[in-house]
Amino acid sequence: MDIKTVSDVHSECDIQGTMRLSGSGPSGRPPPFEYVAAAVLDDRGTVLRWTGTAKDLTGFTAEEVCDRPIQELVADLPDELHSAREMPASGHVRLWHRSGDTIDATFRISPVEGSAEFLVLAAPTYHVTNRDQGAALLRALSAQDRITIALHDTELTTVQTNATPGTLDGRPVAPGTRLCDVLCAGDAENLEAVLRQVLVTGVPVVRRNLQVSWRHDPARQHALSLSAFRLEDSRRRPTGVAALYIDSADDLRARRHLDLAREVAEQVGGSLDVVRTAQDLADVLVPAFGDLAAVDLAHSVFDGEEPSKQLGGGDMDNAALAPATAVWPAGIKRGDPVPPLPDHPLLRSFRHGETVVFGLDDFIAMVSDPQLVEYLVPKDAHSVMVAPLHARGLTLGAISAWRCGRSDPFTQDEADLMRQIASRGALAIDNARRYTREHRAAMALQQRLLPPATTDTPAAETAGVYLPAGDGAEIRGDWYDAIALPSLRLALVAGDVIGHGILASATMGRLRAAIQTLADLELEPDEVLARIADLVQRLVAEAPPDHHDVVGATCLYAVYDPVTQRCAMASAGHLPPVLVRPDGTAEVVGISPGPPLVIGSLPYETTTIDVEPGSVLALCTNGLIERSDRDIDQGLRRLTDALAASCRPDRALDETARTLLANLPDQAPRDDAALLLARTRAIPAEDTAHWEIPADPAAVSEARAWTTRQLTRWGLDGLLFTTELIVSELVTNAIRYGRPPAELRLIRDDVLVCEVTDSSPTQPRLRRAATTDEGGRGLFLIAQLGQRWGCRHGQNRKTIWSEQLIECPR
């Protein structure tokens, strides 16, 4: 077969339009050359010998190339090679491939010693470049302090590595070692499992985070990021595993710092209790930041007050310790005072708001008192970091973190982190402090505005209890009241103000004062609530625009008459009362609730019920029955059952009330709770007397005579004169200005009550008569003779009454 020249082959291939390659094999992929092509030339550049690898590179056989100039294989021969008189030592050329394409090749020429021949070695340029770059990359990676490269064979034996496992002499790991020779057994076993999976499956592992310990130092862990891939030969058979370990301690530390900062933001500040907030701050630092943590606060912070400007040891108490199970130095307990420390430059830095770090020796030298050192320093501690809790221009206290045992000492980066944590924690503690101050002020105002807890009147004995909201909720202005009214009657009130804090307490005080004033006017319950609703409307108009929605209240107003043994009541959006009868049965009183007091211009309805003596009326607010797991109806039923079981005749009312509150399912209710219990009494029939007044002026004398007989029968001879004058004036006015029917009624208890009722709505008015006036002195005389007097209106009637104190009541 004739041998074609290289140029002929090129021409044919070019005509046939076969695919062109640029430094690639005929398949379009880089040829799998794991070798170097070789040929022998004479001094004129004629090919003398042609190897099989040269055939693989160019596609030409030895028969086609030998005895021909090598230049015929070179496409676009460089000018420097055209003019060269000697063989170049190395260079880059493009060689013709038998397919007609070209191959970028890198060559090196060396003379053969003892002859005029030259050995030519050539390889694809991309292959040489990749090897050079790979070698350079490998050298660069091997030189990195934080990057470890390890090549393992199929048995996972270390073939080559730049690892130095932190030994004191710093010697590298010797080839032929196994992972178990360097790492702890468990870590080596886990790592080998990962590498074996890569070797078997060929699936690489990228940036897998590991925690490993050197065999010679098992107590200390190191954070690594592992990337591993399988090594293969030219036939894609696995030959081992390459592992790349990157020291991720800094990344892990930064991630932990971010996690800790997020944890502080999420966990600290959720409570408005100073001690709870301090404990949350200490808990979040252990064990993420230190082995032990303590929070110390100024004495005044616990009470909600501002600390002194110069804060230091001796005026602080411990507020929190973490962990609770830690072994602290003898005597340190939460709530203990912090002993004063001697003056020291680092301590002065702390007082100026800087975070300070002490090694154990420095701390001992600063304290200088062996007993104080023993008291303060935890066992095995080697370093402590102390940061001031500084917020809004105030230094509230300090937070300290200790590290013990084999843990790393604190770094400056951690000091910066502690400064941020202390700043956030100080704001949370200061918020709790300010809330404590406002809460205590509101509590004091609320308690001062509430009536006495117990009262004892002819109409009933009462007991009231008030439970403020807990767990950070603010005072919401719940109240109760028991108001003694004329004619031995008793008004019972329970109310719940919208809003919270001091504003709610102030609103409660204004409403309570208004209700007491209206109660003295002896209006019907529906009329009292209507007028209070008008007052609330005025309060809304006076409030700033952003407070219009938080001014209002609900209220239940009831009046019990021990003479008639009836109770009239009306509700302004409030819970109905519960009636417990003497036989122990209990029920919710059915009343028609009107709108809350914030809604004006709507009517209220009075409901009247009969009440047996010895019954208990219970008035409460929502906080006593509202819970997240049940509705109001369920709460009322539960309260009714509890009252039926607790309100026994032989049990004091105040004890019953306290027991009911103590048995609340929620220990820290989100709303105030107020409860008023009233055990009713009745005025005996023999202590009352009635006489119908005829519409005749002559009836005045008969009324005086009837009154004299009745007082004599009661043994009240000492009141005969004044009572006759009072009865005369009252009956005269009823006959002269009123309308029949009219009635005179006397009631005896610790006071003597004289009442005259007629059907006229005319309101009597006390005035001072002139010296020339013939009348107008009746009410003046009544006011002078009795202890007090007044007038109340009912439906189509009015009653004028007068009370006199009985000096020696029966």
Topology, element by element:
Layout: H1 6-16, E1 37-41, E2 47-50, H2 52-58, H3 62-65, E3 74-75, H4 79-82, E4 90-96, E5 102-111, E6 118-124, H5 125-142, E7 147-152, E8 158-161, H6 185-201, E9 205-212, E10 222-232, E11 238-247, H7 249-267, H8 274-285, E12 292-298, H9 299-302, E13 316-322, H10 345-351, E14 356-359, H11 360-367, H12 370-376, E15 381-391, E16 394-404, H13 412-449, E17 454-456, E18 460-467, E19 478-484, E20 490-497, H14 501-520, H15 525-542, E21 553-561, E22 566-572, E23 578-580, E24 586-588, E25 607-610, E26 616-620, H16 632-646, H17 653-662, E27 673-680, E28 688-693, H18 699-714, H19 720-737, E29 742-748, E30 751-758, H20 778-785, E31 788-794, E32 797-805
Antiparallel strand pairs: 1-2, 1-6, 3-4, 4-5, 5-6, 7-8, 7-11, 9-10, 10-11, 12-13, 12-16, 14-15, 15-16, 17-18, 18-27, 19-20, 20-21, 21-22, 22-25, 23-24, 23-26, 26-27, 28-29, 29-30, 30-32, 31-32
Helix pairs in contact: 7-8, 7-13, 8-13, 13-14, 14-15, 18-19, 19-20
- Oligomer classification: single chain
Regions with little confidence, pLDDT below 50 for 5+ residues? 1-34, 769-775
> Which strand order does the major sheet show?
2-1-6-5-4-3
Structural class: alpha+beta
Please report which band the strand proportion falls in: under 5%, 5-15%, 15-25%, 25-35%, 35-45% or over 45%. 25-35%
